[in-house]
Design goal:
Distance between the termini: 32 Å
Number of strands: 13
Helix content: 25-40%
Shape: globular
Number of helices: 9
Strand order of the largest sheet: 1-2-5-4
Order of helices and strands: HEHEHEEEEEEHHHEEHEHHEE
Structural class: alpha+beta
């Protein structure tokens, strides 16, 4: 975010998606709003802007950013928005938190929050429970639950075969070469669990997901280059900038911030990069090099300097 974008945002006033805080001394209040925006449509929380739309800024140090990051840790499930410092002509800085929305229901200090126009309120329990049920639907719906005490003999073999024939007709699955229900279900179970596990493990290791092809006779799993791929989640969603920073450090090795900026190919302010590197340190994804002064920089955690 640049100064003009900040000015345009402030001129629009506070709304469901924008909130002003004069200083980070109001960060506890601000995190309730961050929580509410995560539960809603997302938005911006601006530190260094008054309720009267005055852009005043504040002094921002490494400790300031650390205090904001620590307050963000009180949100569950963890979610770290982009931190975008904007330097003003008076030398002070506005900190903009860019918050994504529409995801898993979040709480701050154990309480859910929602936006009601330009204000933040505690989310009604009924609404929070509905959001939780929607989140759980993918894992808790009836077809994903174990059928305790049910055997192969209890299944409608005819219906299974009819469903398979319809899927083949619609070209959703390949012809398996058999209509034996025991063989069909055993093959589906082994194929599904095995490939899902491979995809899960490669993503967890920061590797490209495998390419999987199958027909009625075989399953081919192809693993591509072992070049580093930044994880999308580390207990929470990473922003696109944070993933890009990890990928740059994987390619360059230990590097000072001046070198990192050259490889970003983005019009990203230096302070924004510094703030997001600070967050990645908090997540134990990167660490500082042992060099001092201008040569000081960052590297992926566990990578030799």
């Amino acid at each position: 975010m640049n100064l003009q974008e900040l000015t345009d945002l402030v001129n629009g006033g506070e709304s469901e998606r924008v909130e002003f805080k004069k200083t980070t001394g109001q960060r506890s209040e601000a995190m309730r709003t961050v929580c509410a925006m995560l539960n809603g449509m997302g938005g911006f929380v601006l530190f260094g802007v008054t309720d009267r739309k005055q852009i005043v800024g504040q002094t921002v140090t490494g400790q300031t950013l650390e205090e904001v990051a620590n307050e963000l840790r009180r949100i569950e499930p963890p979610a770290f928005p982009d931190i975008e410092p904007v330097v003003l002509s008076n030398g002070l800085t506005v900190i903009a938190l860019r918050v994504g929305g529409g995801g898993t229901p979040h709480t701050y200090d154990g309480r859910p929050y929602a936006r009601n126009g330009p204000t933040t309120i505690q989310m009604p329990q009924g609404r929070y429970e509905r959001l939780l049920l929607e989140r759980m639907h993918g894992s808790a719906r009836w077809e994903n639950r174990p059928a305790v005490g049910v055997t192969l003999a209890d299944l409608d073999h005819g219906e299974i075969v009819r469903t398979l024939d319809e899927a083949i007709r619609r070209r959703r699955v390949d012809e398996p070469g058999t209509r034996d229900v025991r063989h069909l279900l055993t093959g589906l179970q082994a194929w599904g669990r095995g490939t899902l596990k491979m995809a899960e493990l490669t993503t967890k290791a920061g590797l490209p997901p495998p390419e999987i092809e199958s027909d009625s006779r075989e399953v081919v799993v192809r693993f591509r280059s072992t070049l580093y791929v930044a994880p999308t989640r580390v207990g929470h969603d990473l922003s696109s900038l944070q993933r890009r920073l990890l990928e740059v450090l994987a390619r360059t090795g230990p590097a000072p911030i001046s070198e990192i900026l050259k490889h970003l190919d983005l019009d990203t302010p230096r302070r924004t990069v510094q703030a997001n590197l600070q967050l990645l340190r908090h997540l134990d994804l990167i660490e500082s090099t042992q060099k001092k002064g201008r040569a000081a920089g960052c590297k992926l955690r566990g990578v030799p300097s």
